[in-house]
Write a structure and sequence with these properties.
44% of the residues lie in helices and 14% in strands. The protein is α/β, with parallel strands linked by helices. The strands form 3 sheets. It has an 8-stranded parallel barrel, surrounded by 7 helices. A two-stranded parallel sheet has the order 1-10. Strands 11-12 form a two-stranded parallel sheet. Helix 12 links the parallel strand 11 (293-294) and strand 12. The protein is elongated and about 80 Å long. The mean pLDDT is 95. It binds 3-methyl-2-oxobutanoic acid (KIV) and zinc ion. Zinc ion binds at residues 13, 168, 170, 201, 203, 237. The site of 3-methyl-2-oxobutanoic acid has 10 residues, from strand 6 and strand 7. Mn(2+) binds at residues 13, 201, 203, 237. Its EC number is 2.3.3.13. Catalyzes the condensation of the acetyl group of acetyl-CoA with 3-methyl-2-oxobutanoate (2-ketoisovalerate) to form 3-carboxy-3-hydroxy-4-methylpentanoate (2-isopropylmalate).
Amino acid sequence: MRKITVFDTTLRDGEQSAGVNLNLQEKLEIARQLERLGVDIIEAGFPAASPGDLASTKEIAQTIKGASVTGLARASKKDIDAAWEALKVAAEPRLHVFLATSPIHRQHKLKMSKDEVVAKAVETVRYAKTFFPQVQFSAEDAGRTELEFLREVITAVIDAGATVVNIPDTVGYLMPEEYGAIFKYLKDEVPNIDKALLSAHCHDDLGFAVANSLAAIQNGATQVEGTINGIGERAGNAALEEILVNLNIRQDFYQAEARAKLDQLSRTSRLVASLTGMQVPPNKAVVGANAFAHESGIHQDGVLKERTTYEIISPQLVGLDSNQLVLGKHSGRHALKERMEFLGYSLSEEQLQDLFIKFKELADKKKELHDDDLVALVHDSTLTE
Ligand code: KIV
Ligand code: ZN
């Protein structure tokens, strides 16, 4: 089984979501929960971005001992110095430095030639290595970079001492087959690739962030990056909870495993949602309120007979007590009977039939029926006559 290193960037890329601004205490609370979840690396912030970011990265680096803490820097000495100031207190100081490699970024943003980009990347990694034992280099917009050139940059930064090389699909442009093919190419063509971890970092602009991350793992990525609830710049980053559950549920397919404790996922998701104010849609995979809710009678009947008929993930796996049979107009007698027994009512067949008719009448008018609706109905039925 291949080991996958999990790199969480909820506090850095995730915090770049429009409208999100976490204070120091909130960041610390999320970092502690990420430590409980068992991610390997926490990207705590971007120390050169603001004094507040430097302070919170430093505080997290001082507090968290069960995960490695990193911070982001541009390819500049000033940024690397700020990151060192924040991270030197960490148990295992680690820097994440990035430089764009794609033609669009080279031409319009950096105004640099290919040779200048390679030279800058090498100089930056060498400088970072004078402070940090672990240096991750990200080729920003790798997804739209010429493969040959990407190979050249990655080979050069590994020679300069990078211990992790990250291949971001910065703008969420690629399809899973294309993103996976980049990893296969780099595995095959970069001569020193075994000296570094190869990392996937995906954005969700076309809705493929999780699929692309998994395609990268299939094709040789040994580190995967993402955020809780998939929060992040624009349409967000790859949702870590979905990647982790995929690796667990389809271990037969991926033949890879991560060290995270999945039963902390629901709790982590709720904490991030409440502190960022970014609510999780009810139908979101793994952590949505409806992810374990069964409404239709056929499904409820199946689940009551054998859970796996309609449930591939057990709610307990992600830290929930049980699944939820939501009683609505599609629900059947079996689910109603179970719910009434749970509420302490042992009904005869005749009483159940009478209640079921009233239940369907009310369900036509109301989307979901709650326990107090059922209790009111039962007292209105033959049971009390
Ligand atoms: O998406 C991206 O390219 C990034 C880099 C800074 C790694 O977040
Ligand atoms: Zn990103």
